[in-house]
Amino acid sequence: MVGGTTGSTSPVLEENARAKVNLTLRVIGRRVDGYHDLESVVAFADCADRLTLDAGGDLSLTATGPRAQECGDTADNLVIKAARLLGERVEGLTFGRFALDKHLPVAAGIGGGSADAAAALRLLVRANNLEMDDPRVLEVARLTGADVPVCVPSHACVMTGVGENLLPLSIPRLPCVMVNPRVPVATKDVFKELGLKNGELRVGVKDVLKRATWPNEGGSLDAWIDALNAGTNDLEAPALKVEPVIDTVLSALRGAEGVRLARMSGSGATCFALFGNDTDAQRAAGAIQLAHPLWWVHSGALS
User: Fold this and answer.
1) What is the pTM of this model?
2) Exposure pattern of 169-206 as b/e (b: 16+ CB <10 Å)?
3) Least buried of 181, 191, 196, 249, by fewest C-beta within 10 Å?
């Protein structure tokens, strides 16, 4: 969408960078190249960063907002990395001035940096009259980070491989509460704690061949919660060893009135809980925020 204009004739383009939530996450094994094969049901939240692009001129990024200080050096930001990689593949690519309004916690297991990079790619596609399915855009998404390909469409899906294979899902609106204890957790530390060697499978061959089945299009909230309850997050146990406060977060969510499912997202430390309705979710979020005023708490929905 168009967010306004500058003194030039080019509009300032805007994109939301929605938080990613891993409803399930299974680690199949570690490949010989060191990357981990995953299988994850991914949904997207209604909380987001906001990224704008004032197209034209040199590439730059400024960050504002409540989480801006957590971004570190903007020169190392994934927004800049994605833009530079695309510029190496598209001759004469129009860059411009990116401005990031940062609200999502970083190193939090909800793909905040990846969502920002994906938003940057969508903005550059629009500014340069490219197509989202341009092989160069898809390649850059993969090279920028494992979560960037799923964040580009920001649509519920089953994500497999190292994040490059996406099977769209039709899920109902899922009332939820998301909580982050404001403690960063490095993904590499969690995988190190998981301890898989190169070429090591975590599950048996028969388990790899057996794919979980999910409700068909139009499946009810109850059907989805039942199906998701049969899943797991294989990174939860190692993440608890890296950062024990995650257990406190999960206990707070699992003790909430009306909770239907509580689990960690990604490699942590953000955890989520699903509820049968918005009222229960909002009540739980209020109680948790009151008990833990320094935590980041969001009440909303996944879709």
Assistant:
1) 0.93
2) bebbebbbbbbbbebebebebbbeebebeeeeebeeee
3) 196
